[in-house]
Amino acid sequence: MDLTPAQRRMAFIVIVLALAGLGAFLLWPRPSPAASAPAAHPSTSAPAPVPSSPAAPASPVPSGPGVNIYQLLPFSQADLTDAAGVVRRFCSDYTTYSYTESAGSYVGRMRGLVTSELAATLAQDYATPGVAQTRTQQKQTASGSGAITALRAFGASSLTFLVTLNQKTYSTPHSGKTTAHTASGDYAITIARSGSGWQVNDIQLASAGNS
Question: Per the count of CB atoms within 10 A, which of 29, 84, 161, 208 is most buried?
Fold first, then answer.
């Protein structure tokens, strides 16, 4: 059947519109299924924060066996204790005297604590004329002690301690009035092995060195 001119124009318009709709469908960007899909369970509130796990307690640092410092030294702990004991006894005898004592008596108390060389030096110092005369005239007596403050130096067979000597001296001059005088000073005392023990072989002011 032949179409009239009006019918042909109407068919042409329908085909153009159909093709335009098909082109629009094919060319228009479409959202991805994931983006267009609604949330399965929409939430109206902010998500709850994820609870943080408590911090793990610090692991204790494993402690290895302690270092024995005496393994690195030429003397043992017992040696050091014995040497310090000799130094303390020496300090007590060294700072204690009486005007009634002779040099031999004064040094005799230290027998075994000091070397023979040091004993001779101490006896000489004690008997120094001016010192001995003053001691006798003022009827001086003294007592004291020593406090070890440090180990200054050591060698294969010797130790040098820093010691604070404290001494209290009483004087009774011709007036008959007794006065007391307290003095202290820092000294370096060196002690050396002697057989199975220790003997003091030197004493000097700490400022003089003796290291």
Answer: 161
Distance, CA of 171 to CA of 183 (rounded, Å): 14
Cβ distance 190 to 207 under 8 Å? Answer: no
- Does the model's pTM come out above 0.70? no
From the number of C-beta atoms within 10 Å of its C-beta (0-12, 13-18, 19+), residue 84 rates as middle
Q: CB 106: neighbour CB atoms within 10 A?
A: 20
CA distance 141 to 145: 14
pLDDT for 211 equals 57
Neighbours of 5 (CB within 10 A): 7
Dig out the tokens for 99 from the structure: 């005007």
Which residue type does 133 have? Answer: Q
Helix (H) or strand (E) holding 120: helix 116-126
Quick one: which H or E segment has residue 163?
Answer: strand 158-171
Instruction: List all residues 6 or more positions away from 146 whose beta carbon is below 8 Å from its beta carbon.
Output: 87, 88, 90, 91, 92, 94, 95, 163, 164, 165, 166, 187, 189
Classify residue 40 as exposed, middle or buried by CB count within 10 Å of its CB (0-12, 13-18, 19+).
exposed
Number of H helices, E strands in the chain: 6, 5
**How many residues are present in the chain?**
211
Specify the higher pLDDT residue, 48 or 133.
Answer: 133
User: How many alpha carbons lie under 13 Å from residue 117 in its C-beta half-sphere?
Assistant: 7
